[in-house]
Amino acid sequence: MLDKFKQIKQLRDIQNELSKEMAEVEKNGVKVVINGKMQVQEIKLNPELSQQEQEQVLKECVNDAMKKLQTIMASKMSNIPGLGF
After folding, report:
1. Single pTM value for the model
2. How far is it, in rounded angstroms, from Cα 57 to Cα 76?
3. Fewer CB within 10 Å of terminal CB in the chain, N or C?
4. Spatial CA neighbour of 30 closest among 73, 66, 61, 76
5. What is the three-class DSSP state of 79?
6. How far are the Cα atoms of 30, 53, 63, 68 from residue 50, in angstroms, in the given order?
7. How many CA atoms lie within 13 A of 9 on its CB side?
């Protein structure tokens, strides 16, 4: 039972750490910044690109930033014994 409480505390600590993480991705002048709570913090577009190009690059940037955060999350979670990651 005590181990479960330790795991819960570790999960809360990781959640606090993750909330401070940021993932920034920039491609073709389009920039996206997403925080560890999976909230978009910043978007910068490149006016030299067409609307269709901006949409495509923006989608790629968001997906790449999310992948970065998922990797960070998985790495931190793997340090908690008994979670099966």
Report:
1. 0.78
2. 29
3. N
4. 61
5. coil
6. 12, 5, 20, 27
7. 6
Q: How many residues does the chain have?
A: 85
Cβ–Cβ < 8 Å for 40, 34: yes
Cα 11 to Cα 56: distance, rounded to the nearest angstrom: 35
Q: What is the DSSP letter of 39?
A: -
Residue 34, amino acid: I
pLDDT in tens, 16-63: 888 888 999 999 999 999 998 889 999 999 999 999 999 999 999 999
Matching residue, tokens 């910044």: 33
Q: Chain centroid to CA 61: how far? A: 11
Q: Specify burial of residue 23 (Cβ count, 10 A radius: 0-12, 13-18, 19+).
A: buried
Strands 22-27 and 30-35: antiparallel
| Residues 6 or more apart in contact with residue 61 via CB below 8 angstroms | 25, 26, 27, 30, 31, 32
